[in-house]
Design a protein that fits this description.
By secondary structure, this protein is of the alpha/beta class. The chain has helices at 4-13, 35-43, 56-60, 95-115, 138-151, 173-181, 196-202, 208-220, 238-248, 268-274, 284-300, 318-324, 353-361, 375-386, 394-401, 405-408, 410-418, 433-437, 439-445, 449-453, 459-462, and strands spanning 50-51, 68-76, 78-79, 91-92, 121-130, 159-164, 186-192, 225-231, 255-260, 304-305, 310-312, 330-334, 339-342, 345-349, 367-372, 391-393, 422-425, 428-431.
């Protein structure tokens, strides 16, 4: 039985209840469904990309004398099954296509290095995702990891994440050996739910038992693990979210990600919801109650929430910290559909693997949409993404931009404060609990007018270009 002192300590970890109801209207957002657009805007800000013939200028303009530190993202766009909810650039795995993909990836790296060899570029974190990279054969996985090891300076890497799916057959011991050989330090696995009914609605292709067995296998192999979970699922009740939390929070996993489900137009599940074949997700107020429960239960279990989605016991994910927290490290994305923030540009690669292959066969970077950021967009980006960490250090913002935050964003700060989403505390703009739950509302308040009006190019749209 817990002592009075231990119970008091646990109670102190629970965040206070918000003093306001969830906001119903802010920054032109009227309901949670509108976040289909906002999610991508926030993730890859700014969204107003423009077509380009090739990406030569992005790389040839890099100064040879400049030391730089980047994060590296590798998109492997293949899965054994295509989940009904998935809005990403994924294709059903075929070995012959995967082999062509590895050839094309090598040519993309070669094309970039022909413009600038990046010898003074150090990689801080690596994330291999997509897709399900572990669907690759042992030989293909070895070749992919060898490509990264021989073409980039990985000596200073502090974190190397490999995405997987709970598929036992993909995780043979030889792949774990490859991970160790090439310095993989962390595995991220999509579980999404421990309720079989929800897994079937999502079209996951695995059971809860499969997922828990793979958790044991990974932890037994000695790799730190993140699991992705989802809530606000179609027809999901509050008690089902509580059950999911109960099922996973005692597993001893160091890091979890909890994402509210948002139907993405063009996915099978969104169509089923629209056609009333499955129930709708929770509304805005029901979502807020679910968010509070996720936050409270994980806090009691010793997890610290550091973004709207991510919870860590001992170590935050450096890749997420680098991409969002000021000053926001550059990210070089490789592979079909990869997004990058590099050399002052936001850009995306060709999504279709065949078209991507054609471009790299011509020895040009496979860039199809890009935007060179203006100074205004750079300033805005610091706030839009930086607030994902629930606060902005105002003196740091001024150092990076030369602008006093409370002057530059006076109207927006006043609006957010009145809505109960943020508070000004000494040198910090801090999100309230409501501001955490509706963090995209906060973030888009700092977006430029053009960015607010622009729908970010969705992977499903770009796949059909």
């Amino acid at each position: 039985m817990a002592t009075q002192n231990s119970m008091t300590a646990l109670t102190r970890q629970v965040p206070p209840k918000p003093s306001v109801s969830p906001p119903s209207n802010l920054a032109r957002i009227t309901n949670y469904q509108d976040l289909v657009k906002i999610e991508e805007c926030v993730r890859y800000y700014p969204p107003n990309l423009e077509p380009v013939s090739n990406g030569v200028e992005i790389f040839s303009a890099i100064g040879e004398s400049r030391d730089r530190e980047i994060d590296l993202f590798v998109d492997v766009p293949y899965c054994g099954t295509i989940c009904g909810f998935c809005p990403f650039n994924v294709y059903r795995y075929k070995e012959e296509e995967a082999l062509r993909y590895i050839d094309s990836l090598e040519k993309e790296i070669r094309a970039i290095r022909s413009l600038n060899d990046l010898t003074r570029t150090r990689v801080r974190t690596v994330w291999v995702g997509g897709g399900t990279p572990t669907r690759l054969s042992i030989a293909s996985m070895n070749r992919l990891l060898e490509l990264l090891d021989t073409n980039f300076d990985l000596r200073t890497v502090v974190e190397f994440t490999m995405e997987i799916k709970p598929t036992q057959s993909d995780l043979v011991e030889e792949k774990f050996d490859l991970f160790r050989q090439y310095g993989v330090t962390r595995i991220s696995m999509g579980v999404q739910s421990t309720e079989q009914k929800q897994l079937e609605i999502l079209g996951r292709g695995h059971t809860a038992k499969d997922a828990l067995e793979v958790v044991d296998k990974i932890m037994g192999a000695g790799f730190p693990l993140n699991i992705d979970m989802m809530y606000r699922l179609p027809g999901q009740k509050h008690k089902e979210v509580e059950q999911d939390l109960e099922n996973v929070r005692s597993l001893g996993i160091d890091h979890m990600s909890w994402f509210p489900y948002v139907p993405h137009q063009g996915t099978r599940l969104a169509s089923r919801i629209s056609n009333q074949q499955v129930a709708k997700p929770a509304d805005r107020e029901q979502y807020f109650a679910m968010f509070e429960t996720v936050l409270e239960r994980l806090s009691l279990a010793g997890y610290d929430q550091y973004t709207p989605y991510h919870f860590a016991k001992s170590r935050r994910c450096d890749y997420h910290v680098d991409r969002w927290k000021m000053p926001q490290l550059e990210t070089l994305g490789l592979g079909p559909g990869a997004f990058s923030f590099f050399n002052g540009n936001i850009y995306t690669n060709e999504h279709d693997p065949a078209k991507y292959a054609k471009m790299v066969n011509e020895n040009v970077p496979p860039v199809v949409l890009a935007k060179k950021l203006t100074q205004t967009e750079r300033t805005s980006r610091l706030a839009v993404l930086g607030v994902k960490f629930f606060g902005l250090e105002l003196s740091k913002f001024e150092t990076l931009t030369g602008e006093i935050f409370t002057n530059y964003y006076k109207k927006e700060t006043d609006l957010l404060t009145r809505a109960g989403l943020v508070e000004l505390k000494a040198d910090c703009l801090e999100c309230t609990i409501a501001g955490r739950a509706f963090n995209n509302d906060v973030a888009t308040a700092f977006a430029t007018d053009v960015a607010r009006r622009t729908k970010h190019p969705q992977a499903l749209d770009l796949m059909r270009r």
